Amino acid sequence: MREFLLGKLDGHALPHEWFTIAGSIAFIAMMLATILVITRLKKWKWLWSEWLTSVDPKKIGIMYFIAGGFMLARGGLDAVMIWLQQAFSSGDSHGYLSADHFQQVFTAHGNIMVFFVAMAFIFGLINYIVPLQIGARDLASPFLNTLGFWLYIAGVVMVNMFFLLGGEYAATGWLAVAPLSGPEFSTGVGVDYWIWSLQISGIGTTLGAINFIMTILRMRAPGMSLWKMPPFTWGSLCSMVMAVTVFPLLTATLFLMFFDRYFGTHFFTTTGGGDPMMYTNLIWMWGHPEVYILMLPAFGVFTEVVSTFSRKAVAFYKTNVIGMIGVSSFALSVWLHHFFTMGASANVNAFFGVMTIFIAIPTAVVFFTWIATMYKGRIKFDTPMLWFLGFVAIFTIGGLSGVILGIPPADFQLHNSLFLVAHFHSNVIGGVLFGIFCGITYWFPKFTGIKLNERIGRQAFWCWVIGFCMSFIPMYILGLMGAPRRLDHYDASTGWQPLFVMMLIGGIIIAIGLALQIAQIIASFIQKNRLRDATGDPWDGRTLEWSVASPPPFYNFTVIPKVNSRDAFWDMKQAGDHKPEYEDIHIPKNTAAGIYISIFAFFIGFGFVWHINWLAVVSFIGILIVFIVRAFDEHPEYTLTASEVKELEAARTKQAKAERRHNPTNDRDEDMGLWELIKVIVTFGFGLARKTLTRGKA
Amino acid sequence: MPKPNKKRNRQGRLVWLMPLLFLGFGLVIAYFIHDKNIAVFHPKGLIAQEQLHLTLFAGALLLAAAVPTMFLLYFTAWKYRESNTKAVHDPYVRLSKSFVWTMWVVPFIFALILAGVMWPATHRLEPKKKIAADAKPMTIQVIAMRWKWIFLYPEQNIATVNFVQLPVDTPVTFELTGDEVPMSSFWIPNLGGQLYAMTSHVNTLNLMAEVPGDYPGATAEINGPGFAGMRFTARASSAADFDRWVSETKQANHKLDAESYANLLKPSESNPAAYYSAYDTDLYGKVIMKYMGSHAAHDNQIETNHEQH
Ligand code: HEM
Ligand SMILES: [Cu+2]
Q: Are residues B155 and B275 in the same domain?
C-alpha cells in the first residue's frame, strides 16, 4: 500500500547533505519571501490576471526573461562551484566536493545554461519582438504560447526539485550519454529528474516553435513578403524550423531512455541487445542543431544592431538571409562530428568532417554582410554595438576551434578535452549569450520605456570580455596539454593548477560583470525620468517594432501597418505622419489552462521519477480534462471597439506628451555611475530603516 | 543631428584592445607552462606527430582567412565611427553585386583546400589502419573497467593494470573493449588520439611511440565517479628495456586468473599499477562473448568495423 501510494519516496529522499539542505532552505526562503511580499502588497489578483494567465506574448516574453535571469544566477553559481573545485583539487588536495557531487554540479550547470537560460532568453526575445516586427497583434495560437511557457516553468521546477526530494541530480554530463545514464550505472533518481525536466520543457519548446512558424508564415502585415522580413525574424524562423525538426527526436530519445530505466527495456543498455551507440547518435542528431537553434536568432539580433547603429540598411540582405538558411540546413547534417572517436569508418568521418568545414562558409558570409553594412555607415558605439564587437572576436575564435575539431584526426586529440569545452563556451558565451545581452540592451527601451544605463553597461561589457579571456584562453591551452574535461581531480605533476586558478579569477571577473548588469538595470530604473524613451524610437530604428510606443500597448498596433519595403518603419519616417483610422481589435482572453496543464505535466514527471504510477495516470487524465474544457470555450477572444481604441490612444498620447517634457539629455555619459548608484542605494536604505524605526515608535 | 559622443566613440577605439587581450593572456600563460608537458604540441609518437601537423596546418589556414576578415571588420567599424569627420558616410551606398560572389567564393576556396587536405588525412590516420614500420608490430588488448585499464599482452602473455609499456619504433595495435563499464575513451595525448572503449565492441587504435619516456594516459569520456582517477602511465622504452621488463613481469607474484579478474571487475578508484605474470589466453574472447547478442539489433547508423564476435 505504502509503495503504491508513495512509490520509492521515503525519508531518505529528504535533504540531508549540506548542499541539498542549503538549496532547500534557499528555495523555500525565496518562495516564502515572494509570497510574503505579494501578500503584503495585495498583488495576488494583479499578478494572476495581469501576468500569470496572460497570453500577451510581450508579457510572456518578460516572464521568460525573469525566469531565465534567475536560472542564469543559478547556473552561474554552479559554474563558480566547478571553477572552485578545479582550481584547488590538485595533488593531495581533493577539493571540497566529492567526485559524484562535482559531476552533478557540472551536469546541472550545462542543462540549466542551455535549456533554462539560453532557450528562455531566446524565446523571450522571439515572443516580444517577432510579433512587433511583422506587424502582428498576436500569435497564431496564443494558448499554445502560454502553454509552452508554463511547461518551461515546470521544467525549471523539475530541474531544481532534487534539492527538496531525492538529493541527487544526474552525474552524467549534460547529455547523459548511455550507458552511463542507464539503469545499470545510474541507479538513483538523478537521471530521472534529468529526463523529465528536459522532456517537459522540450515539449514546450516544440509547441512554441510550431506556433512561431505559423505566426511568422501566416500573420505578417500586408505587404511584408518573406524577403521583406527583418533579419531577426528570419533568424527566428530558421531557428524555429530547426527546433520543430529535431525536438521531436529529443522527445523520442528521452522516452526510450525512460523506458529503459522504468520498464527495463533494452534500447541503450550494454546487455540484452541494447545499443548505447544509438543513444549517442540520436542525442547528437538533436544536440548539434540545438546549438544553432540558439545561435540563429542571435545572428539576427546582431544584423539588426549593426544596421541600426551604422544607420544603414542591411547590406546584401538576401545574402545575409541565405547565409542563415545555409547555416541552419548544414547544421542538420554534421552531428556525427561529436563522436568521430566512436570508431566509424574513415569515409563516414571524412564526410561529416567536410560538412562541418562547409558550415563555416555561410557563417563567414553572414560576417561579410555585417562588414558591408558598416561600410560608409555612421557608426555609434552604444552598448549593443559593443556586445556585437565583443561577439565578433570571441565567436571567431570559437568558430576556428570548431572547424579544427571538425577534422577527424585533429579531433582525436582534442575530443572531450578542455579544448572542446573552450570551443563551445566561446560560441555559447561569445555568440549566444552576448547576442542575448545585445538584444536585451537594444530592445530594453521597447520593453520598459527606459533606456539602459550606458556607463555601467560598458563596465559590465568589459568585465565579461576580460573575464572571458582570462577564463577560457587557459582552457584552450589546458586542452592542448591533454586535460580531459570534467576532472574533479588531477595530478600536481601535470602543472595545470596555475591555469585552473587563472580560470577561477576570470570566472570571478565574469561574475562581477553579471553583478554590474544587475546594477545597470537598477540604476536605469532609478534614473528613469532621464532615460525615458518617450518617442518609442530611441535608436532611430528601421523596423516596425520601433513604430509603436515604448512599451507598446497590449494590442501592439492601433492600425496594422502596410509594408512596402524592408525597412518599413524607416520609410514611414521618411514619408511623414498621417492620421490613423481606428478599427475594432480582437484580443485573446487570458487563460489559466496552460498553468493547469503544466502542473499536471509536472506531476506526470514527478510520478514517474518516484514510481508513483497513480499520480502519473491521474495527472494525465487531468491534462485531458483541461484540454476538453478549453476546447469547449467558445469565446477565447473579446473585442475592443474602434472608439475604445481611440480613447486608449488619446490617453496614451497625453501621457507620452507629459513624459516628453522631462526632456532627457542626449549625453549618455552622464548616466549614473557605480559609486553614485551605491550612494543612492545606501541613502535609500537608511531612509527606509529610519522610517520603519520611527513608525515602530509611534 | 545629435552631437557625437566622446566616450562612446572611445569605446570604438578600445575595441582594438581585444586582440591585445588575447595576446597578453597568451603570453602570461606561456610563462606558466613553458616547461610543462603540452602534450598535443609535444608529440612523442608517429600518430600524434601527424595529427599535430594536420592541426597546425588547419590552424594556419584558418587564421589566414580569419585574421584579415577580423581586421577588416574592426577597421571598418573604427573608420566609419560617427566622430570620424574625415570618413565618407553614405547611408545609401550600394556595393556592387560582384561582392556577393566574392563573399561566397573566398570562404569556399578556403573550405575546399581544407577539405582537400582533410579527406586523405582522415583515411591515412584512420585509427584502425596499421602503421608501416621496420619493426615487427605487436598487439595489446585493452579492457576498460570501473575504473581502471587492464592491458593484456597476447604475444608475451603478461597483463598489467594502469600501466602499459611499449617498445619505441614498434607499431602497436591497441584492441579496445570494456567490461561492465560505461563508454570510456582511451587517450595517450603524447602518442596520439583517442578512441572509445565500449562493451561488446573492439575498436582498434594503432599508435607508435618514437621517443622513450613516461606519458600520461586517461579516459577522456566520463564513465562514473571514478572517472578522474582512471589514469595510467604509458612507458615507451627501447626494445631491449621492453624485453627486460617483460621478463621481470613474468616473475610477478600473481596471475590474472578468473578469481583475480573477478576482483578487478569490482568497481574501485585510483588503482595503482599492478602486474600479472600470465593470464588465461581466452580471457579477452570471453569478455567479448559476455556481451554477445547484444548487437543483434544492428540498426544504428554508425558503421562499426572490425568487430570480433
Ligand atoms: C563554425 C561553426 C562551428 C563548428 C565548425 C563547430 C564544430 C564543433 C565540433 C566538431 C564539435 C565536437 C567536438 C568534439 O566533441 O570533439 C563541437 C562541439 C560543440 N559545439 Fe560547436 N561548432 C561550431 C559552432 C558552434 C556554435 C555556434 C555553438 C553554440 C552556440 C557550438 C556549440 C558546441 C557545443 C555545446 C559542443 C560540445 C558539446 C559537448 O560535447 O558537450 N558550436 N563543435
Ligand atoms: Cu556540433
A: yes
Which class would CATH give A43-591+634-697? mainly alpha
Is the ipTM value over 0.90, yes or no? yes
Task: Please judge whether A180 and B183 are an interchain contact, meaning their C-beta atoms are less than 8 angstroms apart.
Answer: yes
Same domain as B143, residue B276: yes
pTM score: 0.93
Max CA separation in chain A (angstroms) = 84
Establish if B242 belongs to a structural domain: yes
Residue B146 within a domain: yes
CB A240 within 8 A of CB A207: no
Nearest atom in ligand 1 to the alpha carbon of residue A173 is 41
- Does one domain contain both B103 and B248? no
Do residues A107 and A79 lie in contact, with contact meaning Cβ atoms separated by under 8 Å? no
Q: What is the dihedral of CA B149, B154, B160, B165, to 10 degrees?
A: -90
> What nine digits make up the cell of A592?
489559466
Residue B131 within any structural domain of the chain: no
DSSP string covering A46-101, please?
HIIIIIIT---HHHHHHHHHHHHHHHHHHHHHHHHHHHHHHHH-BTT---SS-HHH
Of A570, A468, A476, A479, which is closest to residue A513 (Cα–Cα)? A468
Q: Which three cell numbers stand for residue A325?
A: 538558411
Q: Are residues B47 and B156 in the same domain?
A: no
Query: By the 8 A CB rule, do B171 and B129 touch?
Result: no
Report the alpha-carbon distance of residue A303 to residue A121 in Å, rounded. Answer: 18
Name the DSSP letter for residue B294: T
- Say if residue B185 is in the same domain as residue B265: yes
Along chain A (698 residues), what's the average pLDDT of each consecutive run of 10 residues? 78 80 86 90 89 92 95 94 94 90 94 96 96 92 93 95 88 93 92 96 95 94 92 96 96 96 92 90 96 96 95 93 95 94 94 95 95 92 92 93 96 96 96 96 94 92 93 93 94 91 95 95 89 84 88 87 84 72 84 93 95 94 92 79 83 74 58 86 88 72
| Three-state secondary-structure class, residue B217 | strand
Domain of residue B215, residue span: 138-293
B144 and B117 co-located in one domain: no
How many domains would you assign to chain B?
2
CA A683/CA A689 separation, integer angstroms: 10
Contact check, Cβ <8 Å, B8/A454: yes
Ligand 1 center to residue A64 CA distance, Å? 26
State whether B115 and B33 are in the same domain.
Answer: yes
**CB neighbours of A166 closer than 8 A, spacing ≥ 6?**
A13, A188, A189, A190, A193, A609
Cβ–Cβ below 8 Å for A410 and B69:
no
Residue B147 in domain: yes
What are the residues whose beta carbons fall under 8 Å from the beta carbon of A431, sequence distance 6 or more?
Answer: A295, A298, A391, A394, A395, A398
Q: Own/partner pairs for A686-695, CB < 8 Å, 24+ apart?
A: none
Tell me how many degrees the CA angle B275-B278-B284 measures, rounded to the nearest 5: 100
Report the nearest atom of ligand 1 relative to the CA of A357.
Answer: 5
